[in-house]
Structures
1.
Amino acid sequence: MRIVAIFSRDFRFLDNALFEGYKDNEIIPLFLLDQFNQTEHGDNIKSLFFQYVTQFSEELKKLKSKLYIIKLEDFGQFLDISRPDSVRHSFDVEPHSIDKINYLKLECEKRKIKFDLINQFLLPYQEQNFKKIYSPFFKKIFLTYLNNNPPKIYSKPNLLFTPTLKIKNTSLPTIVKGNIIKLWFKTEKEVLDSFEEFLTKKLSKYEILRDYPSAGATSGLSIYLRVGAISHRYVYKKALSYPNNQKFISELAWSEFYRIWLYLNPYVKNIEYKESWRKFKWKYDIELFEKWKRAETGYEMVDAGINQLNEEGWMHNRVRMITASFLVKNLMIDWRWGEQFFYKNLVDADMAQNVGNWQWVTGCGLDASPYFRIFNPQLQLKKFDPEKKYISKYLKTQHPKIIDFERSKREFLKQATTLKT
């Protein structure tokens, strides 16, 4: 059989279901360049993403194969030339990805070519696999399903049978070389090795130290899961073989939680999940928003976090919550402004996670403890960076406070308590 395998966010060789049957079939690797690749994401994730596409293409050559790169609108022509028996594409939940998948499926149907949608995540995406509160989702859905359905790990191909086609590759956008790639790019082997090091040296203290931004206690996998340099299946199954894994696995489950939520409720990408919150009167104060973006709020933990994001394209998760809470619950700026700023700048920008976390912080999304959770950046600093190691690394200039924390908190709560939450 001749199989076209379309790679979108799965640029790896170990545990990649797109390569299934590689020993007995012709596999034609394909990457589709569309406008979303180029317009929706910011330069940070684009530079890293296209670096992975390039690296993946080079690694395929070592297997006597080739990555064909074409524009999305040329897919039908590609099918006419390659004449495959089937086409494979990994399942995704983002609305634009679903639109693209539907387009690809239609092009295949026109030519009576089988289209296989492959789920490379951990859970099937169905209504019954979801609970609106995370804890029962984790215990009754996530763990139960995986205990009964242990994930299969696909072997790494050592040789691919890829036919030579008379198709000229489309050039990838110019990759923004520099700090982001130097900081974050790792080969697949390096990603696997660093994960192994995390499991052997850091997992035992993960639950205790994960909230301390200077401790270096997290796995750092979000970036590599996003581009698919490592699989969710592999991470889950590997972690199971180590003690003290429950907290780490529960964090992995959050990504499934938000992906299923977005899949079932695609409107939440820009509309509050809780309908009552759609009446909240945000302050569209551009000057305050710009100060937040430039790390000029006067609150050390907030400014250090924004500096880290601006410099590195990444921010520690605890600090993400602190900076987001300050924007929506103290500056009372629309959460969508902050969500888009993060999405444009994070190297691990993932729509489901980003939207889910911003709505969680705001209190308008999936949240067992809604609007009254407000992160005090000064108390958070004392608790999670008591020696100011994180602050000293990322805080360049101390600015005067742009608002009074307690007064702004009261103003937010006064309005929020009127909503039916």
Note: The two ends are 55 Å apart (CA to CA).
2.
Amino acid sequence: MKKPFITLEQVKEITKKYPTPFHIYDEEGIRKNARRLKEAFSWNPGFKEYFAVKATPNPYIINILKEEGCGVDCSSMTELMMSEALGLSGDEIMFSSNATPAEDFVKARELNAIINLDDFTHIEFLEKVAGLPSKICCRYNPGGVFKTSNGIMDNPGDAKYGFTKEQMIEGFKILKEKGVKTFGIHSFLASNTVSNEYYPTLAGILFELAVELRDKTGADIKFINLSGGIGVPYRPDEKPNDIMAIGEGVRKAFEEILVPAGMGDIAIYTELGRYMLAPYGHLVATAIHEKHIYKEYIGLDACAVDLMRPAMYGSYHHITVLGKEDAPCDHKYDITGSLCENNDKFAIDRMLPKIDKGDILVIHDTGAHGYAMGYNYNGKLRSAELLLKEDKTVQMIRRAETPKDYFATFDFSDILSNIKY
């Protein structure tokens, strides 16, 4: 059973200053997890985690991970700007983007970030708009269906990302001719895998590709980026990944493929977001309404603006009713928000303890792709983000939005100048 990292007593104290809804993150859990990842890949001297900023784009969170030795994986101008403001540059930034605007490439070159090209045509485009760096990475898509012994994991052939193998070979030759000195390989073939096989299987594919690229192009390959894809068990009956077993599986593939090929000095990179943050974030909300029609509904003061995944993907997020952890789950509810959309539901037909108005609900595993995917439909305003620090004090790390924020992009006009805040 999933257990929240905050108690009802803590939430009662927090809400004296910060009303629900809010996202809250567990600093202690984040740091311990980052150290565990580093330990799992300690066999590789060049190992580095590049935290996927898109998952939780908050400078306080990024700083915690920076202190634990992580870099950042950026995919946009604003993510690059945030990273720059936090003192990150050069090899601390991996820039992985697609359909990339020229100005984003220019900014990445300005910061001397490691640029990961998503498409063969981007070689010419990058050279034209920002110039080619001496170190570059290319993203590989093998096409077809990606399988492990556990079965089909995803369908890269339908994904918009990456070079074909033929394009990788030709691209490395062109880049080498144009003066690029060192290379990296990147690939992302499956999302949110709860399987210890994913990374070792992917690593084997990329390690064999690295040997082939070296042999056919003469490229000096310095790193292989396994990207993200390691998932978390959103459901309480799912078995979590064993990061130590994953690291060991990658090590075995490394020693079987790269070491005999004389490529044992290659660094391994990761770009994890969900694995780094999801379990260490909760969306905390209050039950404010109940409805009894053809089904039983509990309405929260949070909605899909605060957590889009259930509405967008039908994703499962576990729910704990604080103070009723030991009560029988003998009531069936749809847990909803207040958007004018019928898919604004955090849970459907979920068996939970009897919920009363005023009860506090914790929605689990919202630390990644939670707040980050928020939006303002229906004029809804996004909630605050809080940090439960290691000393158990609470710090606001992003304030809740206000109507003034919502209307701020009309500041060029006086048409709404009579609004009172």
Note: The first strand starts at residue 22 and ends at 26.
3.
Amino acid sequence: MSIDIDSTHWEDQYLALMRHIWLHGDERRDRTGVGTRSVLGAQIRCDLSGGQMPLLTTKRVYWKTATREFLWFLTGDTNIRSLCAQGVEIWTDWPLDAYRRATGDQISREDFSARIVADEDFAKAWGNLGPVYGKQWVDWPTFEPVGEGLYRPGKGINQIADLVHALRHNPGSRRHIVEGWNVAQLDQMALPPCHKTYQFHVTNGRLSGLLYQRSADVALGLPFNLWSLALFIRMLAQQCDLEPGELVWMGGDTHLYLNHEDLIEAQLQRQPSGSPRMTIARRPETIFDYAIEDFEVSDYAPQGKLVAPVAV
């Protein structure tokens, strides 16, 4: 689905998509039981030149939280302990829900997170998410034959390192892809990948990136996904001596949860303004060596915070 709008501000694409789904989306029951209004197929494009970043201005987006999550993916870690230690609770609800169901202990989210941080054994027992994004990105499992019908684990594939190498040495390739959808391991994941397939394209010294997202929570998740895609492009461009080009986001099941009505109605009354920009303070030796302190955002003056519950 493409949306025609008479505006030069990228965020109008986001608001037009939100409005279209809320007014015309099909109402469906979903995995969470909350219910959604949904469309199949959507697109948002954003120019990243001059430091521009797709940060929503019609509500505050906690870009440092999204950045910490993205850097965590690059470590290959799949336990929430290091995230909780940084005050990032994006992934806490899934282990918390599993713990409550298994034990009957209706511990609060705050107390569960604090215990994850304080107790390493508890974190090992209850903080694991299974082989989610980071595992697939930097350690995609392989298997080696050791006999007829017998296999043993082989050396994992670091898709991110391979991508950087390919962008540097074969920029014209059509295989600059990072994939998270490992069919053999989906049932082991707390949540199968939503932002599943990334593809990158080099032309005239500019690096553009496309993300196909199979499932997109437009009100809560998509603002983080747009930021993270832009961040990924900017980091890769710096590492490969390229200039950032265009961000292209494509949604599969693109939806709004029915219990997000208050947020949606409020946000659709607002008008975008300003042009947030990001600078990267240094160029680390590898893409795996960035830290949260390396990123600085300027000209970001968002309107008031809007909140809504996460559907687990």
Note: The radius of gyration is 20 Å.
4.
Amino acid sequence: MIISPTNDGSKSAPRLEVFFNMWTFQDLPDHCTAPRGAPHELYAAIRDAGFSGVQDGNAAAAKAAGLMLTAGARVNHPTEIKPLVEKHLAEGQLATTLHCGWGMEDDHQVDAYATAVLETSREFNYPLFIETHRATITQDNWRTVQLVKRFPELRFNGDFSHWYAGLEMVNGHWDEKVDFIRPVLERVGFMHGRIATPGAIQAPVTGELESTYVQHFRELWRLCFEGFLKRAGPGDFLVFAPELLWPAIYYAPTLRNESGGVSEIGDRWEDALLIRDIALEEFAQAQDSTTV
């Protein structure tokens, strides 16, 4: 049995739902144009900006604003997965993305995570998406493709900034590398919309729309959307959640300022809106290509 997709129980055509990852609001600089205020004001502003849900947000505030809710978590042992899902179901979460392990596991240990994910998802009919992320069991593309060969029922949260920067995917033949990871791209059921360069995990998007790295991410996202649409049924939706993180954890780029400190480059709120628009454009392209 495959991982349950996110589904609203309707007969609606498969679609993309754009969520806002609440970690994007962490330590915003003064120049950022993001909405601010009390939780009810903040979540209403997120809704009014066109987002239909949040990840890692305040459950009560999200529900009051009419927003759907999903979660993200790290698990350091397969036995942690079932209690986590029970907790998230009680909170009203629709799905959970998972960082599994630390990347030092052998195949037997990796398979234990995969088995626990599949069994728990089946038991609770709950979507669990293993995230492609550094310092986890999916930290490199070769190992993740082998995992898919052993467990084709798995579904993933695609955050390809980790592979694009960490594995320097532009070094060599891009098309060959994309073909190699297609088994993963075809199994993406949730996405974190972060764009990287070959040397930086989180790159500015505003003013860089024609850059090679943005075009590469457009292609990766479109292939994920096509894979989703080819297997999706009525009521299924794929969550796309821009996740733009703060400088203290070495994601958002900075520059030295005149006072000798560092200032964050760019505006994470504006970049999140732009990334959302890119995703919607590529989903429309994927719809056209899968209905021909």
Note: The domain at 15-290 is CATH 3.20.20.150 (TIM Barrel).
